[in-house]
Every structure is written in structure tokens, then in C-alpha cells.
Amino acid sequence: MHTWTAGSLSLYTLASLSRGRSPRRAARTPLVRLTVPSGMTTSMGVDAVGVPEALARRVMGRLPRMGCVFADGGRWWWIVPSGSDVALEWPAPAHYAAGALVPDARREPRLVHQPAGKAPYTPPIPLYVTLCRLTDTLPPWSRSAPAED
To answer: What is the pTM of this model?
Structure first.
């Protein structure tokens, strides 16, 4: 049995533990793992951010760089590096899928965008800011601090 000490817990470990404690879905939905095309490098791990298709189409033209994007019918998924949810609350209706495990859709996810090069990732901060703008969500760092007396 491993004994955890303060020195052995990294930010990544803590984030993984907090994800493991997330509330269970009421109904068990089968999950499908998005698979990046062969030949692409996934050294930073793979997570995904999904939004409804109508919103996804608006996002497409606003990002300076896009990685792999998958569509599964009603939702489109951007591949981001693992841990792109650390210290971020993705705005509704975005869904963050650790490990790129997405709810099983009626259709097999298909690749709708593949970047040139070997990196499958969409930079998460531009994606996050774009989603905040399109959903009229103020990022936490832009919110006013409470007034002091």
C-alpha cells in the first residue's frame, strides 16, 4: 500500500483525484474513446471538449489553430492536452471529457478536421476564451473582485 505525502502529490495527481471523485451519472451512458489519426503525437495525453454542433460551427472560424475535431451527430469534440480542465470551469453547454472518453452517440464519431503536422491538439486557452465569448460567459479572471469595506 502506498502512503501519500504532501511531497508526492503533484498538481496533475490532485486534478486526477478530484476528477475521480466527481458525481456519478445517474444513468450509465456507454463511453467511446476518440482516437486520433495514426502518426500523430499524443505525448501530452488526450482529453476532449465537446459542444453542440451549432455552437461548434461558430467556433471553427474563430480559433487561430485547431487540432483534431470529431463530430458524433449532435456534438463536436476538440482534442486538447490532458489536464486542460485544471483551474478552468468550461462554460455551459461545453462538456469536458477526460481521456477523450465521450458519451456514446447514435453515430460513430468521425474526424471533421485534421491539422497539418503531428500534433492533434487545439490550444485550450483560445478554445476556452472563444467559448466564453460565444456563450456570454465571463472567465473567472475577468470577474470583479468583491468590494472591500
So the answer is: 0.77
